[in-house]
Amino acid sequence: MVKCATCAVKNKCRKDLKCELIKPKYGKIKHVVGVISGKGGVGKSTVTGIIAVQLRKLGYKVGVLDGDITGPSIPRFFGLEKERTGYAPTEVKDAYKFVPVETGLGIKAISMNFMLGEEEEPLLWKGPVLGNVLVQLFTDTDWGELDYLLIDMPPGTGDIAMTIMEQFPVDYLVMVSTPQSMVSMIVQKVVNMAEKLEIPVKGVIQNMAYFQCQGCGERHNVFTNNSAQSQADKMGLKLLAELPINPEFTDYLEDGQAERFAATNPEYDVIYEAFKTDDEEIYARNKAVKKKVIPFL
Ligand SMILES: Nc1ncnc2c1ncn2[C@@H]1O[C@H](COP(=O)(O)OP(=O)(O)OP(=O)(O)O)[C@@H](O)[C@H]1O
């Protein structure tokens, strides 16, 4: 179905152009999953990394596209901040493809920070340019064969999130939140946006939902005494997992060992369980909807 109602260029519609979602030029991707939050700092990039690790543990071939172009965190999660993207020739003269950086577990990652001289260098680009760059990172990377490509999306409902939701072949979104009604309200905006753009939402992961005391062993809520389940119910989303706030995680992250920590810490088995069964229902629905949009102009 052509999403003309929400198309950014509907007034300049060019009937001669075929409306369709973008595709990777090099390689095959079975499923594209967007990981998104409404608000910044709730742990979306961290959760993207943890999902990637758990999908890898399930035996899938996994890639991660760091879609948070101006605030990329994926290289740090995987301890790859010193790595740089390679370039390989293509069949077309003078055209090159990006070679993703591989993590310890063999996850293929691509991020704008792999292309900068220094990781602190800011990108002084505006929305449309950022959107084009993101499209190019997706289409021009040599992904090989992937079962899942996770996109770490920028927070909120701005330009880049719109570009991803309208033009990328996203199978479904995973919401990341913290159990606070202030955050849930903003996440709800993203849920409503997804609904308008006809993208299914698999459910919500409540990050930093509790703290497990190492002294008494008890689990304490961090933000609220309302359960993560009741917050998820309010948003009308399936609760996929609750994750603890864990200071040890930050230590591992700062040592470049977050991937290993996420792979070996039983706290993250809940994510493994949540992604164990494939989302046949969602994929079947997407096939039926046959999404199409105006290509990026
Ligand atoms: N469950 C957790 N336990 C401990 N620290 C965490 C947890 N989740 C996230 N953090 C830390 O919180 C900080 C913010 O996390 P992260 O970068 O994943 O957030 P984000 O939602 O992607 O932020 P933004 O969208 O604003 O870039 C990071 O330093 C991360 O290490």
Automatic annotation (TrEMBL):
Record: residues binding ATP: 38-45
Source species, domain of life: Bacteria
Keyword Lipoprotein: no
Annotated keywords: ATP-binding, Hydrolase, Iron, Iron-sulfur, Metal-binding, Nucleotide-binding
Keyword Kinase among UniProt keywords: no
InterPro entries to which the protein is assigned, alphabetical: Mrp-like_CS, Mrp/NBP35_ATP-bd, NUBPL-like, P-loop_NTPase, YlxH/NBP35
Subunit structure: Homodimer.
Family membership noted in the UniProt record: Belongs to the Mrp/NBP35 ATP-binding proteins family.
HAMAP family (UniProt xref): Mrp_NBP35
Free-text function comment from the UniProt entry: Binds and transfers iron-sulfur (Fe-S) clusters to target apoproteins. Can hydrolyze ATP.
Name this polypeptide is given: Iron-sulfur cluster carrier protein
